[in-house]
Amino acid sequence: MQAGESKDAIFEATGSTVGVNNVSFEVPEGQIFVVMGLSGSGKSTLVRMLNGLIRPTAGEILVDGEDIASCSPQTLRAVRRNKIAMVFQHFALFPHLSVADNAAYGLKIKGVGTSERRKRAQIALEQVGLGAYTDSAPDELSGGMQQRVGLARALATDPEVLLMDEPFGALDPLIRREVQDELLRLQKALRKTIVFITHDLNEALLLGDQIAIMKDGKLVQVGTAQEIVDHPTDDYVAAFVADIDRGKVFTAESVAEQPVFLQLGTDTAETAVQSMEDVQRNALYVMNGEDIAGVVTYQDAAAAVRTDGVTLADVVSSDFQTVDADTALSELYAPASNGLPIAVTDDNNRLLGVVEPGAVLAQLSGEPAASVDAAAAAKP
What we know:
Blueprint: H1 7-14, E1 32-36, H2 43-49, E2 62-63, E3 66-67, H3 73-82, E4 84-87, H4 99-103, H5 105-109, H6 114-127, H7 143-156, E5 161-165, H8 173-190, E6 193-198, H9 201-207, E7 210-215, E8 218-223, H10 225-230, H11 235-241, H12 246-249, H13 252-255, E9 261-263, H14 269-279, E10 283-288, E11 291-297, H15 298-306, E12 322-323, H16 333-336, E13 342-345, E14 351-355, H17 357-365, H18 374-377
Parallel strand pairs: 1-6, 1-7, 4-5, 5-6, 9-10, 12-13
Antiparallel strand pairs: 2-3, 7-8, 10-11, 13-14
Helix pairs in contact: 6-7, 7-8, 14-15
């Protein structure tokens, strides 16, 4: 490997497979870090290294400064019991134990007393929506529910790090999406540090704060979903993301611009026309202090200039669209169709940015913003 030989050449010469090759990454606390790749890319080997199931031949694996790669068996057991939990693809539930006892199993290994582990298991089951199934047997539950029991078992020990090795791979598509949504809901509340393994790019894009794409044991790109879709590092990554629905990856925030706006009581129809010509926009938002009063178009402002007694306030329209910053672009199709800018607002309805219809179309097409159809950004 140090001489630069390929994975295939090393296998042919030695009979040994290079599972993970010089991989380096850092997972910030509270994030979901998704590792994805095709079968044989090394992703499952990688996740098994993170809890010491496979020892690397070189390198370090640091969890809170503790090197899992070189620590003693006693230290490794302590890390597994107190800091790391794993959720498996095929549930790995004990068929002879109840749902509650399965959820409490990690606590039992830690030596937690019966009443306390029952209490904590119940809390974990309620977190995943299975509080009413504590005394059921695993085979009485659906596949999605069984996987939630596996997740509850991991959560019951209150680990700092969750390792999830293709945990939803055995589920039907509809159930899989339900459990993905459940994980996102839990993560929003619990903010665990999660390393999630998958071969499904759509799943990676949905779940990952950061995504690492593996090929032949190496990381070929690490970034956010938007970075990977917008700027694939090579042809391999580009082929992965070629058919992705960009409308589900990008958000209003990703195409929003700093708002140029007018103020009631200060601006006039004349200054509105001049402002729109200066910034080459056919409509601008009008503010009343920090509140959005409405939107005015170039056509209406110009008409007001030509008509005696008509002010800017008279031509401001209250028929405008607002969205949150994290609204998916797919949800902006309809609002963008009327040709007016879309207001991006916060929880207090304050104007954070403006999305021009042309910017939505440009991002969905994968073209640079500068190449937006001239009709969407032309000088009015």
